[in-house]
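User: Fold this; tokens only.

Assistant: Input:
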Amino acid sequence: MHIVENNGGKSGIALHKFMDIELELGPDVLVPREETEILGRAAIGLLGGRDPGIKVIDMCCGSGNLGLAIAGKVPGARVWSADLTDSTVATARRNADRLGVADRVTIAQGDLFGAFEGLDLAGSMDLVVCNPPYISSARLEGDRSELLESEPREAFDGGPYGLSIHQRLIRDAAAFLKPGGWLAFEFGEGQDRQVAALLARARAYAPVEFVADAAKTPRVAIARKLDPA
């Protein structure tokens, strides 16, 4: 993961490498981290071998990195991405245009799944993928305050316990997934037990599976939506 400069007619545009694609970033947009590539690889693995026409939601999309990587690696995928702020949505749209996948990637703006109101996406998704904020508000005021020096608070602040967005994601994703569809998301170090409890409490998913980083620390949750029948 590194920054390069585009000198081909747009000098000064910083491009960031994420899963073999180069993304334009901005001052109010989260820089994708290496650990998020764990989530990206897991998501693409879940979609391997599925029929053309698969549908994916990339929630809290930021620069668009996860949804755009999926669209690039899975040519049959149709992706709907969403974020809350003007800057992230504008950046994600520029990246979709740059990468030539804007015909398969829709970037919407809104509060989580409210961004897709009126699009008739309920019950149709093969995958919902998300890298939500997962640092507690108190830590952002304390030992992790340096994160806010150059990146937006919205990208990090997960509420009092770091899991406020996860709670909403787990609850609301079930309505958009088809039976057998997958929910895959990132979480912070040491949050795996709370994540497992949230998923179990939802009663909409099969038992969670975790994907660990190189240090064998769980960082990604994968849960399959149950068939209500």
